[in-house]
Amino acid sequence: DNTTPIATPEHTVDGFVREFLRELNFGQGTDLTRASVNDKYLAMARTVRHYLMVRWLATLRRQYQLQAKSVAYLSAEFLLGRQLDNALLAADLDEVVEEGLASLGIDLAELREAEVEPGLGNGGLGRLAACFIDSLATMNVPCIGYGIRYEYGIFRQTFVDGWQVEKPDNWLALGSPWEFPHPESAVTVDFGGHTEQYTDESGTTRSRWVPGWSVLGVPYNYMVPGFENGRVNTLRLWSARATRAFDLEIFNAGDYAQAVRAQTFAENISKVLYPEDSTPQGKELRLQQQYFFVACSLRDFLDQVLPHDFDLRNLPDRIVFQLNDTHPVIAIPELMRILVDERGWEWSEAWAITQKCFAYTCHTLLPEALEVWSVELLGKLLPRHLEIIYRINEDFMAELREAYPDDELRVRRMSIIAEYPERAVRMAYLATVAGSKVNGVAALHSQLLKDKVLHDFSDHYPDKFTNVTNGVTPRRFVRLANPGLSELITSAIGDGWVTDLDKLQELEPLADDADFRAAFRQVKRANKLRLVDVLAERDGITVDPDTMLDVMVKRLHEYKRQTLKLLHVVTLYDQVTSGAVKIEDVTPRTFAFGAKAAPGYRMAKQTIGLINAVGRVVNNDPALQGRLTVAFPANYNVTLAEKLIPAADLSEQISLAGKEASGTGNMKFALNGALTIGTDDGANVEIRELVGDDNFFLFGLLEPEVAEIVDRGYHPTSYYEENRSLRHALDLIASGAFSGGDRATFEPIVSNLLSEDRFLVLADYQAYIDAQERVDEAYADTEAWTRSAVLNVARSGFFSSDRSMRDYIDRIWHTHPVPPER
Ligand code: 26W
């Protein structure tokens, strides 16, 4: 029986050491005396992989036998973070490896730092995908993640004179031990060309695609291990190569240089992750990326994963394609093309099956973030898909005209094809029409989707709309990131919480236990000390562990309002330096920021410059006696988040109400015992409901109030004129106090706030300052603060991505866990 797998190395220190040395010798071609840190890291990582291999093969074999319904999670981004610790945890190997390496005189901690995290995502959406596949593996649910193996992930951020400068993220430079390339399973993806009409055997006129060029997609498999459950799911990321036809051209044409250029052209498709977050640019290469990975994935699933005799009429019993935002929505016309053009199905049959196979998650409320593709571009790159989209829209328009015979305005509004400012395909509408379900990512967000963004559609298809509140994996963000808290929790309630986060409720009575609170504070302090070391080493930043750690980490975007946080800092600075407030009366705080700005987003880059500029002045002012510090480590990423979040006292979630779809950082902070200062937005609403008003600092306008103010006409200057401390803060920035006297440097930020202020920073300023005063008061009572922090942990179990996955399964996927063979 050739399916009998090789044996797993012995789960002992000796077993590990033997396998490790074998990998070092035979895999890396070196020995202990000569090995570099990278040699040792690669050998260790490959060794760890061996321990998971039997489970992976068993998972694949069992899936092939059972043909259980699977989820295919289609996502242009998977922001995985480092893999080593997660693999060690899944295989319960951390102690064995640490001891084994120590016996060879190697420090595991040093090897850990050799891993470059795969930054294959921008922010929340990509990290969410990574949390979801972790949960599905842990819950024994069959899932395959499909995405793109970008050669360069999200850029590495550096600061030059406080301004962001982007550097390429060459994460593959030293090789990645976690991937399994399968060039032999490459699939072909076509682009361009034209369509033509022809008559088939039955005399029917049909259309077919005559592509102009093509590339190969090479799959790279990654293990997605469940937590100590014997299951390993697969993440399959696609890398673009030139086709053999290109190689042939080299030979035939003799134009070597031209042929190599063609190769480069093909490989460009998976070269780099687009760093735009929430403002799509409509770039051709991005559409190429989207179609590339979706076409590879469908082809792979239909031709490779499914058995060869599979009857596609049963496809909905075997798969659901979950569309992570609109980025993979081109999969809808692609499946139609396969069924109608390649398999010769009737349109209506194909449409019925397609509708059952897709579901769509929307991750935004910003109108400018809703992706559209110009008909001109789509027609050039994917002419047959454009025809199919037109046909889908034709049928849909007919359906609408029948439903609303006297409301042509509504029918036009709902068209998948927009006419202005240019003719374009609205991908969110296409996904809504074609998908079986549409979900938002937090209760408020899903409600606003129904009431506003997709209101006509929720009228027409009321049953399609549902909510699944986001979640985060407790394995990475509590168990691994916060070992101190994990031990404390486990000592109190056992270790069942790691896979059943609702168990954290059992901590609730301990909030009133003074010893437990003291132990909890000790953990927080140890986490701060760990962070102090990290920031000193990584960024040369000095942080005082005895200050309140107030953290705002997330992408830089105007709607998230980093400038509001900054106005708070500037106000405190102004109060102290003007003598209005004595420094002894200021709560010592460290304001930590982490944020990348999209390279082309001017206002966001300005804000980064301003945070650093304010930091420079505040950190160097003797009047502040080091009691107020701004810490802005460059290149915030998953690895840094894992150090920052467990150390935080205060979590800043201050987006304008109605703009942040959910947020997931907010959940990570609450689970790690930080209190939130936040607006009534996204999942903050649910966090506050669960942790209780007394343990959450709510401020700011509510979404309906925002809508009303905007409708009436918002005038930021009136807030400026009527609020002295706001005026002082803005005037200080405008005066050049943070830019060496140069008034021009930050003029764009100030004038934007005073003229447009799209996200009502000035309107929420005073409420924010007041809430921060409440924070100071609460923080002064150490015992009460700790009690609130413990209650935040105890009441946040809902925000496990395991719970999100249960909701997707119940409301959308209707799949089932498949326990491993025992
Ligand atoms: C370049 C075009 C583009 C457009 C939208 C890129 C990325 C997007 C995403 C929708 C932005 C995004 O990451 N949204 C975030 O998704 C998280 C997970 O659901 C939520 O927690 C955040 O609130 C939401 O902003």
From TrEMBL:
The modification N6-(pyridoxal phosphate)lysine is found at K668. Its EC number is 2.4.1.1. NCBIfam families: P_ylase. This is Alpha-1,4 glucan phosphorylase. One of its GO terms (molecular function) is glycogen phosphorylase activity. PANTHER family: GLYCOGEN PHOSPHORYLASE, GLYCOGEN PHOSPHORYLASE, LIVER FORM. It is an enzyme of class 2 (transferase). The keyword Ion transport does not apply. Keywords: Carbohydrate metabolism, Glycogen metabolism, Glycosyltransferase, Phosphoprotein, Pyridoxal phosphate, Transferase. Its cofactor is pyridoxal 5'-phosphate. It catalyses: [(1->4)-alpha-D-glucosyl](n) + phosphate = [(1->4)-alpha-D-glucosyl](n-1) + alpha-D-glucose 1-phosphate. It comes from the Bacteria. One of its GO terms (cellular component) is cytoplasm. The lineage of its organism: Bacteria, Bacillati, Actinomycetota, Actinomycetes, Micrococcales. Phosphorylase is an important allosteric enzyme in carbohydrate metabolism. Enzymes from different sources differ in their regulatory mechanisms and in their natural substrates. However, all known phosphorylases share catalytic and structural properties. Belongs to the glycogen phosphorylase family. One of its GO terms (biological process) is glycogen catabolic process. Gene3D superfamilies: Glycogen Phosphorylase B (3.40.50.2000).
